Amino acid sequence: MPLLIAVFLFSVFVLNVVLGSTSGRAFLGNVGEMLMLLGASVAFVVAILRREAAADRAARQRPQGGQDNG
After folding, report:
1. DSSP state of 27
2. What pTM value is reported for the model?
3. Residue 25: alpha-carbon gap to chain centroid
4. Closest C-alpha among 66, 53, 67, 60 to residue 2
């Protein structure tokens, strides 16, 4: 879910930039753009940290097969 939020917020930012550069009518100002990018960045970091935690949990639950070649 956080990854979808990040994609959505970044898409709104890109749409704003495209509209601003083509027609001169951006619907977000500088602060709005900054907040949009901040929200997208935070949501992306949350999504990545959740996936890392899930991967760590999965790795701990996997049986330790094989021998130690040390």
Report:
1. S
2. 0.75
3. 27
4. 53
